[in-house]
Amino acid sequence: MAETLATFLVELFKDKIPAELTIFVVSLMPILELRGGMIAARLLEVDFLKAFMICFVGNMLPIPFILLFIQKIFELLRNFKFFERIIVKLEAKTERNKEKVLRYKSWGLLIFVAIPLPGTGGWTGALMAALLGVEFKRSLPIITLGVFIAGVIMSLITYGIF
């Protein structure tokens, strides 16, 4: 799915904005995050190191805001029926993964963020940490390391080592 979406966005933005901006925007997006950014970077033939740095920053940029403000945002959005359904789904996803994270504590959150599979990543990890009440000063470094590890894994995959 990430590959299909990344390919679509590359084609959509190709020749309209610089390749670096394209991969930055892709990396900012939930679902795609760094995974999609690295795929887009490879499709756009962006140098590996430059791509990694741009994707990492793009993926990490929203994380502190999610950790700090998502519960307040959810409170405001619950007043709208459309958003209420989305919030309930996000909270249910957190609840399903809650046991894994709580059982293994910091390691659980790290592994959840670091393994680049659909439904995992920095956005979901930050949402989970915020909804589970994990302190900002504890969760941000863990998520940062997890995004870095996911970036290394995706780099190895997308740039042809595996």
Distinctive features:
162 residues; 2 domains; 8 helices; 79% helix; globular
Description:
This protein has 162 residues and is mainly alpha-helical. The chain folds into 2 domains: 2-59, no CATH class; 63-153, no CATH class. The protein is built from 8 helices and no strands. Helix 7 (122-131) packs antiparallel against helix 8 (136-158). The longest helix has 34 residues, at 81-114. The two termini are 19 Å apart.
Short note summarizing the structure:
By secondary structure, the protein is an all-alpha fold. Helices cover 79% and strands 0% of the residues.
Q: Report strand %.
A: under 5%
Classify the secondary structure makeup into a structural class.
mainly alpha
List how many beta strands DSSP finds. 0
Major sheet details: none
Give the fraction of residues assigned to helices.
Answer: over 70%
Q: What is the approximate shape?
A: globular
Overall number of domains = 2
Q: What value does the average pLDDT take? A: 90
Instruction: Work out the radius of gyration.
Output: 16 Å
Q: How many helices does DSSP assign?
A: 8
